[in-house]
Design a protein that fits this description.
mainly alpha, 1 helix
Amino acid sequence: MSNSNLLLDLFGFVGILATVIGGFVVLRASKEAKTAEVWRSEAEAQKARADRLQEDLTEIKERLTRIEAENARLIALLTALDPARIPHAPAG
C-alpha cells in the first residue's frame, strides 16, 4: 500500500469518526435541551400551583376572620338576651 493510499484511508476514517462524534454531540445537546425544557415546564407548573395555593390560603384566612367576627357578634347578642344560658367553653 502506498503512502498516498494510506493517507487517503486515514483521512476517510477520521472523517467518519468526526461525523459520528458530531452526531453524538448533537444528539446529547438535543437531549439536554429537551431535559431543560421539561424541567422548565415542571417549574412553571409548580409555581402556578403555589400561586393557586397562596390565593386559597388568603381566601381561607379572610373567611375565618369573617366567621370569627360573626361568632363574636352572635355571642354578644346571646349574652345580651340571657347571659346565664351561654355555655362556657371548657378550659384548656
